[in-house]
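Q: What would this complex look like in 3D?
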Amino acid sequence: MADITVRSASIGSPDSRSSLHKLMQRKSTIAFLMALPLILLITVLVAYPAGYAVYLAMLNKSMTKFVWFKNFDFLFTRDTFWMVVYQSCLFAITAVIFKALIGFIVAHFVHNIPSKGQRKWRGMLLVPWVIPPAMSTLAWLWLFDPSYSAFNWLLQPFGLGPIPWLGETGWARFSVILVNVWVGAPFFMIMYLAALKSVPEQLYEAAAIDGATWWQRIWYVTLPMMRNIIAITALFSTIVTFANFDIVRVLTKGDPLNTTHLFGTWAFRLGIESNDIPLGSAVSLFMVPILAVAAVFILRDITKRGSEV
Amino acid sequence: MSRKVTRRTVARTAIASTVLLTAPFVRGAFAAGKLSIGFWDHWVPGANKAAESISRAWAEKEKVDLQIDFITSQGNKMILTAAAEAQARSGHDILALGPWNCALYADKLTPVDDVMEPLIKANGAASAITIYLGKIGGKWMGVPATPAAQFKGPTSRIDLLKQHAGIDIQAMYPAGAPPKAENWTLDVFLKAAADCHKAGFPFAIGLGTTADSVDTWGAIFQAFGAELVNAKGDITVNSDNVKKALDYGKQLTAYLPPDAPSYDDSSNNRAFVAGKTALIMNPPSAWAVARRDQPQVAEQTWHHGMAAGPAGRYGPFTTNFWGLWNFSKNPSAGKSLMMALSQAQAIEEMVKASAGYDNPAFANLKTLKVWAEEGPPKGTLFHYPNPYDHQILSIAAAPAPHKIAQQIYSQGLQTQMVVRHAIKGEPVDKVIGWAASELEGYMRT
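A: Here is my prediction, written as structure tokens for the whole assembly.
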């Protein structure tokens, strides 16, 4: 739509005032002004910190001179850094897969509950996602605690354990992933449930008439109809899971032997606890290009499918 | 050039003149300006009150508008606050700083030699570890803070050590008398750990990367003379002493709880209060909680000195400092407050309010009444302040240059080395090679 300008009514006013008045009458100007608070907010809370983090990542340790990409060069030579990369990928990929699977299965269960009682189930299943993770993780910490572990107490009568839930690399990784899945699965569930509700019932009826099995209905009807929501949810969750901090920080602090560190917790260890802010910034920025490229591809695919529809 | 005099001009001038003329005669409640201080929020309930009342009394006397904040160390809030204030060059005038922060922020702090010199004259010499942490480049960059200064030596169960390891710890460290602990060595410590482990009460010593674990293993390494980096900044990790320390670590780890590598600073306390361990390395906070929640555990608790190794008897110690930022607008008031907080009487009040937890840096203040009187059992804290200089108070990674030592400390390099060797089964040479590579990384400038 073309912008509409309204001629100024104030005849005889100076030119500049008249053109300002014209500018203010444009729809694009009004739209810009209305969006200005949000733009300012994003500039102050997102763009500035991000830009500052990039700047910090290019300083030397004592923050006295610009060293360009030397911090990244240094990181690439560290074994611990590559272990953090491995651990972050393992954590994010495993957790997202399990969250998606559990979310998908539970969404189907909830979808099949009669609508009268469905709301209660939806509410209850969302609880893990609604509680602030730092708080719920504290409860998990007690469940895993060496002295008071409820899990070990339950295993004891069966002659099992005690399991060092957070003290041995394998169990510690399992524990942090488990808590992340517990927190994040309800988000997938609610997104998939919304997607399921939007699949037209006629498609299932047609498939049933054609003699499609349960699996074929899932594969040929449900999944294609949910493809966009699955892609967006998975992308969003991957980014958030890679950026996770609170669960690992509360449960293991990256121990044992740094084998549960993620980029966020390792950046904190280096930047704040070890007072090497430039190196910490470099660690925290490491995943940005990889996730940005992944986001571009996934979102482009979604847009393409959207235009095909 | 003539100027028209209006009624408004006359009124404005009259008001301004009145304000200017009377101002010097108004002695406001806060004539000496403003000051803000960020204290460490004490673990011990009620312990903040002493620091607050001393500061308020000082502010009242000096006519200073004083703002007091108590900042928790939970979630690294104190570290974050210090980092943020140093970056922004804005915030409190005085801030409680962690043990390494005098060195890390030396270029942003005001030297306080003029405060420390009279304090040392009055209160006795500062401990060597306090000098290492607080005196940077020959200048005191912070005043040792009484709250949070703590000895993290053994906190033992009298009954369990006697019953399972045959050690009478009260006879070794009698209340009101010098220690008779010549035989309290790391070998005896190891045997006691084995005996108590066998009896189902393993020593709850952590192998994590938080302070309690790091401090303990730092002291054990020092008892073997195992320096990772020497005072000059040379990497000295590849030494026989380090190998001996690792070997000892492997033997001791066999008798620690399987979760030890995941211990944080509260895991050992919980194990102690739950009655599941015969010994932890901790200040009296676990005992204080037990006194409230598990009196039968508290009654059997004794705080005492660390076991000696081949290179000496080292006891883990840590302290905070009160640092005065060089961007403070009121440095003279800041120094005056730090002086008031460090008078012997003020220190005694703070130690008393913390039920003996705080362990001041000065030599003349090691025999305050509170440590002899607190209980039950009475005298449990008598040896906590190291009254007979029975051991060398130390911090892990000393005597390395601070910027390297701080990284060794915050990344728990020594505990990681022990876990690699003892639990992961890596050969000593491989562990040392890995540590050397990490240390090279710490040398970055």
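A: To summarize the key features: Chain A has two domains: 15-57, 70-308. Residues 15-57 of chain A form one domain.
Q: Very helpful, thank you.
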